[in-house]
Design goal:
By secondary structure, this protein is of the alpha/beta class. The protein is about 65% helix and about 15% strand. It folds into 3 domains: about 220 residues, Alpha-lytic protease prodomain-like (Up-down Bundle), CATH 1.20.1510.10; about 80 residues, Cation efflux protein, cytoplasmic domain (Alpha-Beta Plaits, 2-Layer Sandwich); about 80 residues, Alpha-Beta Plaits (2-Layer Sandwich). Strand 5, helix 11 and strand 6 form a beta-alpha-beta unit.
Length: about 400
């Protein structure tokens, strides 16, 4: 079925790096999700109304919220495909996150409403209808959600889309939710307790948790989350292939929507190298990164002194001091300003975020003391950097 839908709606489906093809995959996945979830919502809402089951009705609205999420996915993929313009020079990809935030609040509202309804069902229980025909219909719902999970997983991996992978996880969560509804309805026939109300509370809490999770997933990229370590490492490795580059640091990656990332990086190059040759190598590195990752990278060249025994000795001593304090401390851009009675050792120190702002002066002092044990003339001039 998946291959049939791809052949029908995604021409040139093998060209997954093509933005237009990627957009069609996203729209196909979103439209399929909308159709399936609206079907499940209508089916469960009718069943919940007939049986007066608050848990089935809650599960129905959970499917409706999933349908809204699929709609947002379609809008997101369509907006992400719009060309950049004067007002939005980096494109429209972040529209997906904004729309996702709206849906997250809708999910939260649904969850809170059904939490109140379920508690009322516990306090004022009413009889819930039951039949094996209804169980069979809910079983069909399980099969639909299992297929949707496999469908989103396959498309998500094909185009490397975190949105579709998240949709796959959501479908599997829905399988667990509907299973809980089935267990609750069966148990309610043998236990003299308002099981339906208790199951409804669990489902309402699950919906609230899903809303909070969805809000976090959309807020993180809007606020500026840390770069994916795998992507960061791949960018570093690709730039280090340039013959003149001896080190890289200060990598910053900005996410402007799925498949739209801009990055900047400092690359250390020999201070006595040929500037035109090194500039050409940097240009080639930027193009290589875009070709292999799709990330638009801008590289700033930092000239450093290489092969000077004194500078190399001080660099080794400073590295030893930092690692004696904390193995995670790093330095870059070291330079030495020599004087008769004072030698300024100037460098950037990369400090993990677990060090609070108020702890930094004491950390600087420890580094200063460590360097002066090597040579009393050393004066540390430290710029604090954070890991990117």
């Amino acid at each position: 079925m998946t291959n049939f839908l791809v052949r029908l709606f995604v021409p040139h489906g093998d060209d997954v790096k093509n933005p237009a093809v990627r957009q069609r995959y996203g729209i196909l996945a979103g439209a399929t999700g909308m159709a399936c979830n609206v079907f499940l919502f209508l089916m469960k809402f009718i069943i919940g109304t007939i049986t007066a089951s608050v848990s089935i009705t809650a599960d129905a609205f959970n499917n409706l919220s999933d349908g809204l999420s699929s709609l947002v996915s379609v809008i997101g993929f369509r907006m992400a495909g719009k060309e950049a313009d004067e007002e939005h020079p980096f494109g429209h990809g972040r529209t997906e996150y904004v729309a996702g935030l709206v849906v997250a609040f809708l999910i939260l509202m649904v969850g809170v409403e059904f939490l109140q309804t379920s508690i009322d069902k516990i306090l004022h229980p009413t009889e819930t209808g039951f039949s094996w025909v209804l169980m069979g219909i809910l079983a069909v719902s399980l099969l639909v959600k299992l297929w949707m999970g496999a469908f989103n997983r396959r498309l998500g991996r094909r185009i490397d889309s975190p949105v579709l992978i998240a949709a796959m996880k959501d479908s599997l969560n829905d399988v667990a939710v509907t299973s809980l509804v089935i267990v609750g309805m069966i148990a309610g026939q043998y236990i003299d307790l308002p099981v339906d109300g208790y199951v409804g509370v669990l489902l309402a809490l699950f919906i609230v948790w899903s809303g909070i999770s969805a809000a976090k997933d959309t807020l993180d990229p809007l606020l500026g989350e840390a770069a994916d370590p795998d992507i960061a490492e791949k960018l570093r490795a690709l730039v280090m292939q340039a013959p003149s580059v001896v080190g890289v640091h200060d990598l910053v990656i900005h996410n402007y929507g799925a498949g739209k990332m801009l990055a900047s990086m400092h690359a250390e190059v020999p201070g006595n190298g040929d500037i035109f040759t090194m500039h050409e190598e940097i240009d080639l590195a930027e193009r290589r990164v875009f070709k292999e990752t799709g990330v638009t990278l801008v590289i700033h060249m930092d000239p450093i002194l290489i092969g000077d025994p004194k500078t190399d000795h001080i660099h080794e001593a400073a590295t030893h001091v930092l690692h004696s304090i904390d193995e995670e401390l790093q330095l870059h851009d070291l330079r030495v300003v020599d004087g008769k009675n004072r030698i300024n050792v100037v460098f950037d120190m990369v400090v993990p975020f677990r060090y609070k702002k108020e702890e930094l002066p004491a950390l600087r002092q420890r580094v200063q003391q460590g360097l002066q044990k090597v040579d009393p003339r050393y004066q540390a001039v430290i710029q604090i950097d954070r890991p990117m």
